[in-house]
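Subject: for your reference before the review

Hello V.,

The reviewers asked for a structural picture of the protein, and I figured it would be easier to keep everything in one thread rather than splitting it across files. Below is the amino acid sequence we used in the manuscript, unchanged from the supplementary table.
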Amino acid sequence: MTPTPEFSSLSLMADLIAVTCELGYTHLTAIQAKSIPLLLQGKDIIGQSKTGSGKTAAFSLPILEKLDLRDKRVQALILCPTRELCTQVAREIRKLGRRHRGLQVLPLSGGHPIYPQLCALEKGVHIVVGTPGRVLDHLVRKSLDLRTLSTLVLDESDRMLDMGFQDEIEKILKASPITRQTVFFSATFPKSIEKMARTYQKDAIRITIQDENKQAQSDIRQLVFETEPTQKIKALLWLLQQNKPESAIVFCNLKATVSGLTSALSDAGVSASCIHGDLEQSDRDRVMATFRNKSKRVLVATDVAARGIDIENLDIVFNFDFPSKADVYVHRIGRTGRAGKRGLAISLASPREKAKIAAIEKYTGTKIETKAIPSIGQLDVEAAKSSLHPDAAMETLFISGGRKDKMRPGDILGALTGDAGRLKGSDIGKIEIHDRFSYVAISKSISQSALRNLQMGRIKGRKFRVELVK
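And here is what came back from the structure prediction:
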């Protein structure tokens, strides 16, 4: 396969090229190579590619290139189907734009209090990343002004339409300047998107990345273990014991299964947490922070709750429940085996689900390896528990200060490694800064002393509430 061009070949400002180097980005993905030059020219495009193909950087870099930081009015709006994806996209834009001094990126989604959003909009923001419902709410309130909007992106536009957001999206499009650049990114190209593109885009150029399923899956080893439904928990414990992943997602089809399985794994000594549609946003933030920073090893999730979640260096994806649709299967397993690393996808299926497996093999053009599992009589669950290596290496501290308090990762790192904390940099893991709070991963062996030091000390000369996240 011919390698795609390097990021340094793009007509981007030096600061953006430098950031891509700092983040370890070298060669453009296929969708980036085809779309970024057109977006820099101001063209409307429809980009069709799968999750994990680098779409966020594809539209973010041209937006950042053209941004006028002196004008604190909304210049770009990105619509996403879920609040999780909004948070992820906003985080990625901030990361790519970290050399843009004064850059203001605001997520607008339901599940968050509206008053802080109103205050942020009043102070001025450059880029808004929002769900259609909450964005339309702000337009009706007249708290969001799109008169200076130059770029509007619909990310995962097919999913937004599937979720029933067409009316909201069309109202937002009609409220935007006709001079805007309009960008659709989608995994599929249904007639509803084709019609919307004809109505709201100008001479849109369609970009389709072919054979992406096969290309992505070539880096993922796919296994199916046949087991009866009543024995799946035992089988999953055995597989965790055999593979000992540092991080794994376990997908279930129902919320009730997620809750029950998480309890069963925790009772067996596995460091596990769960995410589903009934969780409050603060709980979702906490769960995802502890999983991203390796304080929890296993995340149990439904498809809807996990949509938009992107985890670096994910060892294994488990399908505890086999999905009924082939595209759902591809979406799930595509979370492992990224960035040139080999991934592993393990599915549990009953003998009666062979037709589903055959349908997925036909859809992907890839043969899934079927393996035998020891007979249930040979599965010693107690022995598996003792050899699971369940403990995560890190614990997570919550700090009651965030981006709005001018908190930066370096401030937290300095407080922990300076005279007051005296910790080694190697004992400190991922630091996440949110608007009003932050999370920091600490080696479990010294987490209690780190907690005491931060509780007794100051960060940026101020006292903050610090707690251990359970």
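For the response letter, the relevant points are probably these. The longest helix spans residues 83-96. The first strand starts at residue 45 and ends at 48.

Happy to draft the paragraph if you're swamped.

O.
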